[in-house]
Amino acid sequence: MKIKNICCIGAGYVGGPTMAVIALKNPDIKVTIVDINEARIAAWNDTDLSKLPIYEPGLAEIVEKTRGKNLFFSTDVNAAITESEMIFISVNTPTKTYGKGKGMAADLKYVELCARNIAEIATTDKIVVEKSTLPVRTAQAIKSILHNTGNDINFEILSNPEFLAEGTAIDDLLNPDRVLIGGDSEKAIDCLAHVYSSWVAEDKILKTNVWSSELSKLTANAFLAQRVSSINAISELCEHTEANVNEVAKAIGMDSRIGPKFLKASVGFGGSCFQKDILNLVYIARSYNLNEVANYWEQVIIMNDYQKRRFSDQIVRTLYNTVSGKKIGILGWAFKKDTNDTRESAAIYVTDQLLNEQANISVYDPKVSEAKIQTDLNNLNTRPAIENQENVSYNDSAYDALKDTHAVAILTEWDEFKTYDWEKIYAQMKKPAFIFDGRNLLDKSKMNKIGFEYYSIGQ
Ligand code: UDX
Ligand code: UDX
């Protein structure tokens, strides 16, 4: 089967950038991204490229080159399914908030809805590609739904997990370490491999069975998150022993068996994937009664929650055991730099705990809006929305946001924070002025010289 039309259901952080790059590298394939969210599709179609719903360095340029040529954004899901030979499912798979597996298992209702929609609409053979991260054996469910349509259409199901990281999505897509395709039909696998081979070397396209592919995605995220929790565990030990976590990370990272990446101690990892995927892994392991396996991986999450709590506790303790009525500046709300995504960001939890201690919070983030910050806090349901509104303010200028604060907490590693005039910030703060650097971003001795009481992670 020669692929001429691709449809992707879900115009999110994964579907949008991935399909934009596929379209860029395959000018002869028409790629249509559909989404049930009309506002999101309208934003993708906005002539003002700064209004795209997702911020990723390099994305707007690719959309500008391809949109209207072979890349299209639409809400007409059925039309796109009908005309495509290959359909990617890239809808969100959040952690369940109800029923069995609540707080642990992935909620697959959107994936199932997509499968049912495809089953209902399709009149020709389709290759259905799982792009969303899914628990092992989800392909079985999709297969069963598609194969029980009662008509004679042939559906092939492939797993093709996405390994891009936000903030570097375009670069990761253009130069992937590997592309993983799982499936049991060699023909279908080759069709998808052909799409990627427009820009990815053959030896980087890895073909496995569908279950290995699904499990590899969860495992990759679990291993990455585990490295962060491991170095964060060591960071606390450093604080008690006068070892410096940056030095330890460098020393162990030079061991080629360990490697230098993902060893940056922080206030805790965030993002839509790490926690969700580990919880998923834990849930699956428990469902097979593999309690030691489940407990082992669950510890990565427990350590991460502890790291966030430890950070806010330190702020309260250092500010003479009370932040009640004190203004605290938060620099950075996104879960990492170069993205406007705030899902599971440490900033949300640190702020929530400081609000519990009756602090007044003043936030600045270069890419996150005030409305998003309020929504993130309200979604925790810790207190009435009106209290979040009264006690959390936002400012377009970092300097104004930090005026009259007792302390600054740096929660995202945005590059611009390093270039600020910290003497000016110091002059405008209450004294003693504290910095709690949750990203080890600033130079301790420089900050001390200005007059700050500077606290960082693991030093
Ligand atoms: C992705 C993956 O798909 C997810 O499995 C992974 O673990 C995290 O990253 P992401 O692209 O980040 O999800 O999600 P999101 O930005 O929420 O986009 C999903 C889109 O799917 C939304 O725009 C939503 O409106 C759309 N959607 C959802 C549909 O179009 N139809 C549905 O039935 C459900
Ligand atoms: C992750 C995976 O890297 C990617 O392969 C997968 O497809 C989706 O999940 P993402 O969540 O976008 O990507 O970002 P990532 O760069 O992995 O960072 C995750 C979190 O860990 C961030 O909050 C980041 O600040 C934190 N982190 C990362 C650290 O605290 N220290 C590190 O050394 C690395």
Global morphology: globular
Low-confidence stretches: none
Give a list of the ligands: uridine-5'-diphosphate-xylopyranose
Largest sheet: 6 strands, parallel
Report the sheet-strand fraction: 5-15%
Question: What is the share of helical residues?
Answer: 40-55%
What does this structure look like?
With 459 residues, the protein is α/β, with parallel strands linked by helices. It has helices at residues 15-25, 38-44, 59-66, 77-83, 109-121, 138-147, 169-174, 186-196, 210-241, 245-253, 274-287, 291-318, 346-356, 370-378, 385-391, 398-402, 422-428, 444-450; strands at 5-9, 30-34, 71-74, 86-89, 126-130, 155-159, 179-182, 205-208, 327-331, 360-364, 392-394, 407-410, 434-437, 453-456. The strands form 3 sheets. Strands 3-2-1-4-5-6 form a 6-stranded parallel beta sheet, with helices on both faces. A 6-stranded parallel beta sheet has the order 11-10-9-12-13-14, sandwiched between helices. It has a two-stranded parallel ribbon with strand order 7-8. α17 (422-428) links the parallel β12 and β13 (434-437). α9 (210-241) runs parallel beside α12 (291-318), α11 runs antiparallel to α12 and α12 (291-318) packs across α13 (346-356). It is globular. The protein starts with a strand and ends with a strand. The mean pLDDT is 96.
